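Below is a filled-in request sheet from our internal design queue. Each sheet records the structural input a requester submitted and the sequence that came back. We keep these sheets so that new team members can see what a complete request looks like end to end.

REQUESTER: design group, bay 2
PRIORITY: normal
MODE: inverse folding
CHAIN LENGTH: 361
BACKBONE (tokenized):
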């Protein structure tokens, strides 16, 4: 895929995701770089491209509030005067299942940096991944059986009971589009192999991540966590983590809400995940090498995520993900989509396999 630039990534966001047109008012709600999540360059890149498209641009620093994310009256007033609201801030993700002002185009960016705006993640045509999402949603909606496994021992099976009306997903636009509609977990059972537990970006808390010395198997029975198997000290650590997080927020400890896998082969994470699990869990999940569960809390996205690395996903006998590679051409409409969007086809031919895993020791 040629001519990949941060500016083209920003134009893809504004033209193909926001459908912004000359004369519209863009408000960028941003989080300053000192919080270690979004970089310093993205606001400037998007603003410059927006002005070149004839948009008026306003920016507002919304900071980062891990404990009480909310839309203040002042911020709501700023929103009311805009046509397009872009969150280059975690606030948008924290509030994505909340009520937002009606009649606005609201986008949450999962591209966090100049590197990501200038990668295949942001440059692959937005419509291609919207269409791929719709294709995999339809396959799952009609599926009789889904089984997924991974090299560390994951083995989960069930029949999806999809909710494809708007309440089954967040109504805020996401850019880039990198996952299908979450599959409710209440009809799935099996074991999920984990090397760590981390949060979901819904709430932030002390001890956000816990790493295991050996892989741990989470036992799943029809959408309920029934226990862990593995090295005794790791099992005790996992149980204590769930006790603490569920107790802190007063939520259903053992509820497993839903799962999805990444569909965007351009979704690389070029940094070490261990330096900032909060950033990793909010940015890397769209890579096909990651299958992601929402757990701990009877709501999306819950407070603890399970991350299965390099999944193989078989739907009614067809392998759509094979050891972390997503084969979009196996979808009924996949070949047509890839033919119409050669930029996306190129990403599937040369997927970004870097998801932040680094060898230790």
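RETURNED SEQUENCE:
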């Amino acid at each position: 895929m040629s001519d990949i630039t941060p500016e083209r990534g920003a134009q893809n966001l504004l033209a193909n995701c926001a459908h912004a047109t000359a004369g519209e008012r863009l408000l960028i709600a941003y989080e300053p770089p000192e919080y270690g999540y979004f970089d310093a360059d993205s606001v400037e890149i998007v603003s410059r491209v927006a002005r070149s498209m004839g948009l008026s641009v306003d920016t507002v620093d919304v900071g980062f509030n891990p404990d009480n994310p909310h839309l203040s009256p002042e911020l709501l007033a700023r929103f009311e005067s805009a046509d397009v609201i872009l969150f280059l801030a975690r606030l948008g993700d924290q509030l994505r299942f909340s009520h937002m002002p009606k009649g606005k185009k609201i986008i949450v960016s999962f591209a966090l940096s100049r590197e990501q705006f200038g990668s295949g993640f942001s440059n692959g045509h937005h419509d291609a991944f919207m269409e791929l999402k719709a294709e995999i949603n339809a396959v799952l909606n009609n599926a009789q059986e889904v089984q997924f496994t991974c090299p560390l021992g994951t083995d989960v099976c069930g029949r999806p009971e999809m909710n494809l009306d708007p309440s089954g997903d967040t109504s805020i636009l996401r850019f880039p589009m990198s996952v299908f509609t979450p599959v409710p977990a209440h009809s799935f059972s099996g074991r999920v192999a984990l090397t760590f537990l981390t949060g979901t970006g819904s709430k932030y808390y002390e001890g956000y991540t816990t790493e295991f010395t050996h892989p741990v198997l989470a036992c799943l029975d029809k959408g309920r966590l029934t226990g862990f198997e593995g090295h005794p000290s790791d099992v005790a650590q996992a149980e204590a983590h769930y006790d603490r997080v569920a107790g802190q927020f007063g939520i259903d400890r053992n509820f497993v809400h839903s799962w999805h896998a990444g569909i965007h082969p351009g979704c690389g994470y070029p940094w070490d995940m261990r330096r900032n699990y909060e950033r990793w869990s909010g940015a890397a999940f769209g890579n096909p090498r990651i299958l992601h569960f929402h757990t701990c809390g009877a709501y999306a996205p819950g407070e603890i995520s399970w991350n299965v690395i390099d999944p193989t996903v078989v739907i009614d006998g067809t392998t759509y993900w094979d050891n972390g590679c997503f084969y979009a051409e196996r979808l009924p409409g996949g070949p047509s989509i890839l033919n119409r969007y050669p930029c996306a086809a190129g990403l599937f031919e040369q997927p970004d396999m870097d998801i932040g895993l680094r060898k230790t020791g």
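SHEET NOTES:
- Residues 168 and 292 are 17 Å apart (CA to CA).
- The mean pLDDT is 94.
FILED BY: M.R.
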